[in-house]
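Late entry, evening session. Most of the bench is empty. Finally got around to the prediction I had been postponing all week. Sequence below, unchanged from the version circulated by S.P.
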Amino acid sequence: MIKIEDYFNRQIQLWGEETQTSLQNKKIAVIGSGGLGCSLALALGTSGIGQIDMVDFDTVSLHNIHRQVAFTLADEGRSKATVAVEMIESKNPFIKANAYEMDFEEFKRLDLSYDLILDATDNFKTRESINDYAKSINTPWIYASVEEFNGQVCFFEEASFQVFNFTNHTPGGITAPIVMHIASLQANLALRYLAGFPVVKDVLYYLYFNTGGELITQKFTMPT
């Protein structure tokens, strides 16, 4: 029989049994089960959070697999949310994970409650809807986006997402490592918050490689 103290041994060394146990009472929703969502599922699904709900209406396509780490070639055509949940459950015997095979507009009508919502989508319209929904239920959310070798993350609590310019911008492509890198930052913010550690909120982190190949991180305070 697997013991929880053995499975989470390294994290218990980091912050003690009380904090690790507290994570069992936390519930999060990950909106989107593609590149960011897969990496979030992998990172947070094995961290001790009690419940993770994966939300996605889409199915796995061949071009997804190189950067969406939950999926294999055998998963082509299957529900992304369902496959992500299967991965979480195969790695962590102590978690409750649910797949919601629907878009966010349908999901938010279920009127569920969470400690934190994570954006893993790929369009501004859905993120705007997540922001409005999170504000209406007084729940913080973490925004993330990626493109080419660049990415950005923000823990939204009081700031408004409306400061972003909603345009018909077409992404120029995405590398697999930047997806995992940005999801890792997003997951670290989520885990610190859920574990009761300090997190800087309403500040946008923008990460990019300059022309010399140096990784640059800029920070911008988001207006309310």
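Two things to note before I forget:
The radius of gyration is 17 Å.
Residues 4-221 form a domain with the Rossmann fold fold (CATH 3.40.50.720).
Will write this up properly tomorrow.
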